[in-house]
Amino acid sequence: MSDEFDSMMAGALTGADFAGTAAIVTGGASGIGLATAVLLASRGAQVACLDLSDEVPEPLLGLKCDVRDDAAVRAAVALAVQRFGRLDVVVANAGIGAQGTVEDNSDDEWHRVFDVNVLGVARTVRAALPALRDSDRAAVVVTSSIAAVAGIPQRALYSASKGALAALTLAMAADAVADGVRVNAVAPGTADTPWVGRLLDSAADPAAERAALAARQPMGRLVSAEEVAHAICYLASPLSGSTTGTLLNVDGGMFGLRLRPKG
Question: Ketoreductase domain: from which residue to which, for each copy (predicted)?
């Protein structure tokens, strides 16, 4: 083994496999993004959270940024690179939800969701690529969804946007491999995040709706933000240097398992 790999392994054993690494996380002020930023920092990374809010706990760096605004994205990425002196990891996580069948959302809503969920990722990655090409451990992780690969009722628009991200991840991975940049994605199941909380609060029977969402996943519960964060960090870690073009399901078995009904 090389001295470099031995050093990374030593870092992993001490929980510091991201030592000397700089990262940005979009949507990093709450939910999966915040859990990921906190975990990256705990494992040695300097982390900037790009979000509509810049209120994040120390030692995270909060930068206000709307991923719908290309100039704002480029400015925030440039500021993070200036502050940290480098950029190694991009977690393109910012996204919004949508409900309804294919009949239920207007063209304006389709454009709004794709502007955040898909173009927001494209804007972030293209702004970051020049700095990532200078890194010896460059990694991009995109937050897609199990809705990209599993048909879920009342999620036509959301599923379409997350399916586009799965395809975009593979295309970006193919383009970036020559530059030494790895690109992967996570596909969470229904996660216990603020957006899901708001969705449940708007239901006629929040407790029944939560139970139904939990039952949809074979493990019988919602996925936690921290579990998704660990999957993201696995894909982003220098120790996963041969992993690229992968969609990692974190879904409580929803996609791959077919269990017998109880009783």
Answer: 21-189
Question: Is 263 inside any structural domain?
Answer: no
* Strand ranges of the sheet holding 61-64, from the earlier edge strand across to the other edge: 61-64, 46-51, 22-26, 89-92, 139-143, 182-188, 247-250
Place of tokens 């400015």: 75
- Specify the pTM: 0.90
12-50 burial string, b = 16+ CB within 10 Å, else e? Answer: eeeebbbeebbbbbbbbbbbbbbbbbbbbbebebbbbbb
Total domain count, the chain: 2
Question: How far is 152 from 154, CA to CA, in rounded Å?
Answer: 7
Q: Are 93 and 212 part of one and the same domain?
A: no
Are residues 200 and 111 part of one domain?
A: no
Co-location of 161 and 216 in the same domain: no
CATH of the domain at 241: 3.40.50.720
Q: Domain containing 199: what range?
A: 192-222
- The encoded tokens of residue 160 equal 């379409």
Q: What is the pLDDT of residues 179-222, one digit of tens each?
A: 999 999 999 998 787 777 676 677 778 787 777 777 777 888 88
Question: Which residue of the set 158, 182, 247, 249 is catalytic?
Answer: 158
> 54-77: per-residue pLDDT in tens?
999 999 999 999 999 999 999 999
pLDDT-derived band at 9 (thresholds 50, 70, 90) equals: low
Residue 158 annotated as catalytic: yes
Rounded CA Rg of the chain: 18
